[in-house]
Design goal:
This protein has 355 residues and is α+β, with helices and mostly antiparallel strands. The chain has 3 domains: 106 residues, no CATH class; 149 residues, Jelly Rolls (Sandwich); 73 residues, 3-Layer(bab) Sandwich (Phage tail protein beta-alpha-beta fold). Helices cover 31% and strands 30% of the residues. A hairpin with a 3-residue loop joins strand 8 and strand 9. Helix 1 runs antiparallel to helix 6 and helix 3 runs parallel beside helix 7. The N terminus is likely disordered.
């Protein structure tokens, strides 16, 4: 079987030369000649499209670009066994990408997977920390980083010589990362990877989405489970989130197999405090839908609130409550004029609209 990395394709090389020339600036004559070359053979246009996709992929993945620099300094000459000589044009990242063609796409995929999170590790190979309903735990890692676990949370931690990796299996956790440029700190949750060196951020894994909120520094958020062997057919989506920003990454589902790229939202210090109020064992709400309030209380208490009327889901709630005082919250709802409370057994409380 022929190996495309061992036999250069003259069409790919010509396409690379054309695109490098275009990046430097076409003259009118060169533009016409390029368009004519593309029209003369369908393979020409296809090669251009493939190389454009490779460059676009590389530009979207700066972390991978940095990882590849030592490998791709003189790619074509080294691969062909020729002496390394200076090109008539500088070997910029664009030029390197064009020279490698489809071979670079494969290299990008390999490099990306080496810097992104590992597949789920067995508990025996990692430190495992968990909290129960209503629980909270603060864990100091050997590297100086700190993880704070919210209720009903599980994390697996592996501190390796070249990186530090955490899998958020369930729940929500806040990470204060000790600075170590040589060992990036990577948190994976539901197919989403959050990478940092020295920073602080919060990750919450829900059924349909992963929320990332940054309190200090900057992180990259990548959807790693969409990476497949043919990287050109499945570009990786990477988003950068800075302090006092958050993003919500919707997870693929049967009804929404290809969610849109996540947006980054600027948030106020007050919003940050509210989002992290669980660290103080309190819940703070400001115009929060009752459905979200119920979910927050249910994660922390044996008594479970159930919305018996769908119309209540969007009812706004404001105030600060002790996270373990669900009974106090129920009494507050009962004291109003719009909600009735019905108890079923010792643990279920159904909320309904008063008729």
């Amino acid at each position: 079987m022929n190996d495309s990395l061992d036999h250069e394709d003259p069409i790919e090389e010509a396409a690379a030369d054309w695109l490098a020339l275009r990046a430097e600036g076409f003259s009118s004559a060169q533009k016409r000649e390029f368009e004519r070359w593309c029209r003369t053979d369908t393979r020409h246009a296809a090669a251009v499209a493939r190389l454009e996709a490779t460059c676009a992929l590389l530009e979207k993945m700066p972390l991978v670009r940095a990882e590849l620099q030592p490998v791709i300094a003189f790619p074509v000459a080294a691969r062909a066994g020729r002496p390394v000589t200076a090109s008539r044009r500088t070997l910029s990242p664009l030029r390197v990408a064009l020279a490698l063609g489809l071979g670079l796409a494969a290299a990008i995929t390999v490099a990306f997977l080496t810097v992104m999170p590992f597949p789920t590790a067995p508990d025996s190979a990692a430190q495992v920390f968990t909290t129960s309903t209503g629980g909270y735990e603060r864990v100091a890692l050997a590297d100086g980083s700190v993880i704070e676990l919210n209720a009903q949370t599980k994390v697996r931690v592996i501190l390796a010589p070249t990186n530090r990796r955490v899998e958020l299996v369930a729940g929500e956790a806040h990470f204060t990362v000790a600075h170590d440029r040589a060992r990036p700190f990577i948190v994976s949750a539901g197919g989403v990877a959050v990478r940092a060196v020295g920073t602080a951020f919060n990750v919450r894994l829900a059924t349909t989405a992963v929320e990332v909120l940054v309190t200090e520094g900057k992180v990259s958020v990548a959807e790693v489970e969409r990476v497949v062997p043919n990287a050109l057919s499945a570009p990786v989506s990477t988003t950068y989130v800075a302090a006092n920003e958050r993003t919500l990454v919707h997870l693929p589902s049967l009804t929404n197999p290809a969610p849109s790229a996540p947006a980054v939202e600027k948030i106020t210090p007050a919003t940050v405090r509210d989002a992290l109020s669980w660290q103080e064992r309190k819940l703070a709400f400001s115009e929060t839908p009752l459905s979200e309030v119920v979910a927050q209380f249910n994660r922390r208490n044996r008594v479970q609130l159930i919305l018996g009327d769908a119309a209540l889901a969007e009812r706004p709630v404001g105030g600060t409550f002790a996270a373990d005082n669900v009974e106090g919250f129920i009494r507050l709802l009962e004291s109003g004029t719009t909600i009735t409370v019905e108890r079923q057994g010792e643990t279920n409380v159904i909320l309904r609209t008063k008729r």
